[in-house]
Design goal:
With 214 residues, the protein is an alpha+beta fold. It has one helix and ten strands. Helix content is 34%, strand content 44%. The model is unreliable at 35-49 and 62-73 (pLDDT under 50).
Length: 214
C-alpha cells in the first residue's frame, strides 16, 4: 500500500515537471518571436532607410528630368496644325524664329478636290494682348509670301502660281501652347495651261487655323 502511494506521488511530480517544461518552452518561443525584430532592428533599419532614400532620389531625378523635357518641348520653335479656308484645305507647319516672327508653310487641296496647293508666308506678330484673359493671349499677325499648285477648277487645267498675303487674329494658350484663329489669305493666282487666266478663288480664302507648338 505504501509502495503504491509512493508510485502515485512520483507520477504526479513527473506530470507537473513535464507541464512546467512545456509551459517554459512555449513562453520562450513567444519571447523570441516578440523580441526578434527588436534584436535585429539595428541591422534591418539602415537598409530600409537606405532603400527609402534611394527611392526618393530616383523619384526626384525623374521629376526634374520630366520637367526639363516638358520645358524643352514647350520651347521648341515647331508648330503643326490644320487650316480650313474658302479655297484651300491644308496641313500647316510653322517655324517660330522668335516671339515676333514666324514662317508658315501649308500643303493641301485646292477647291476641295480640284487640285493641289502649297504656300509659304513670312509672318510678323503685329500686336499681342496678354492682359485680356488669364489663360490665353490674343494676338494679331500678318505676312506675305507665295502660292503654287495645280488645278482642274472650272475651265482651267494647269499649273498656277502667284503672290499672297496673310492676316489673322486669334489666341494662344498660356499653359497649353496651341493657337486658334481666323485668317484671310488672299492670293493673286495666274493659271497656265489650256486656259490662261486669274483664279478668282484665290481672293476669297477666308478660313480657320489651329496649330500646336511642340
Amino acid at each position: 500500500m505504501l509502495r503504491s502511494n509512493l508510485q502515485k506521488k512520483n507520477q504526479k511530480h513527473v506530470a507537473i515537471e513535464r507541464e512546467a517544461a512545456i509551459l517554459i518552452h512555449i513562453n520562450m518561443i513567444r519571447i523570441v518571436k516578440a523580441y526578434n525584430f527588436c534584436i535585429f532592428a539595428p541591422l534591418i533599419k539602415p537598409k530600409v532607410v537606405n532603400m527609402k532614400a534611394s527611392l526618393k532620389k530616383m523619384l526626384m531625378s525623374l521629376f526634374f528630368v520630366g520637367a526639363a523635357f516638358t520645358a524643352s518641348a514647350q520651347s521648341t520653335p515647331h508648330s503643326f496644325g490644320i487650316h480650313f479656308g474658302g479655297s484651300t484645305w491644308d496641313l500647316e507647319y510653322q517655324y517660330h524664329f522668335s516671339q515676333k516672327n514666324f514662317l508658315d508653310v501649308t500643303a493641301g487641296a485646292f477647291m476641295y478636290n480640284d487640285g493641289f496647293n502649297a504656300t509659304a508666308t513670312y509672318n510678323w506678330n503685329i500686336k499681342q494682348w496678354d492682359h485680356w484673359c488669364d489663360k490665353i493671349s490674343w494676338k494679331l499677325w500678318g505676312g506675305v509670301g507665295g502660292q503654287i499648285g495645280w488645278t482642274q477648277w472650272d475651265k482651267y487645267d494647269g499649273v498656277y502660281l502667284g503672290p499672297m498675303a496673310d492676316l489673322g487674329f486669334g489666341f494662344t494658350g498660356k499653359n497649353v501652347p496651341f493657337t486658334f484663329g481666323v485668317d484671310y489669305r488672299p492670293a493673286f493666282l495666274l493659271c497656265i495651261g489650256n486656259e490662261t487666266g486669274i483664279l478668282t478663288p484665290g481672293f476669297y480664302n477666308l478660313g480657320l487655323t489651329l496649330t500646336y507648338q511642340f
